[in-house]
Amino acid sequence: MDYGKFKYQQQKKTHDAKKKQAVVHLKEVKMRPKTEEHDYQFKVRHIERFLKEGTRRSHHRFQGRELAHPEMGRNMLARIIEEAKEWAKVEQDPKFEGRNCIMILAPLQALKQP
């Protein structure tokens, strides 16, 4: 067998495999526990728009003394989950990583399509 032909076929197989891959994009919406109501609603609309585009993620950052009250952040994330349940599903529950509390949301359409 010709080695050049073999290399070419392997390159074609690799290229075809890359074509069929599903790329998952993550976008972050950053909030803080003291985010005001209007800003909160604005960011929730952004989350909805991002999820309808097919991207996913929500990010909560604590600064300074806010870290002493993590329940405020959890309450806000629970509120996001409640508002987003008609167009999103929680893929990863909220969890703390240092000063950040990260939750991953997935669009419902993406979950229905295998």
Description:
- This protein has 114 residues and is of the alpha+beta class.
- It has one domain (24-112): 2-Layer Sandwich (Translation Initiation Factor IF3).
- Helices cover 47% and strands 21% of the residues.
- It contains 4 helices and 4 strands.
- It has helices spanning 3-19, 37-53, 70-84, 108-112; strands at 30-31, 58-61, 88-97, 100-107.
- Strand 3 and strand 4 form a beta hairpin.
- The radius of gyration is 20 Å and the shape is elongated.
Summarize the structure.
It contains 4 helices and 4 strands. The protein is an alpha+beta fold and 114 residues long.
CATH class: Alpha Beta
CATH superfamily: Translation initiation factor 3 (IF-3), C-terminal domain
How would you write the strand order of the largest sheet? 1-2-4-3
Number of domains: 1
Q: Structural class, please?
A: alpha+beta
The number of distinct β-strands equals: 4
Distance between the termini: 39 Å
Largest sheet descriptor: 4 strands, mixed
Element order: H for helix, E for strand: HEHEHEEH
Low-pLDDT segments, ≥5 res = none
Helix content: 40-55%
The CATH topology is Translation Initiation Factor IF3
Mean pLDDT: 81
Radius of gyration: 20 Å
What is the architecture at the second tier of CATH?
2-Layer Sandwich
CA-based shape:
elongated
> How much of the sequence is in beta strands?
15-25%
Count of alpha and pi helical runs: 4
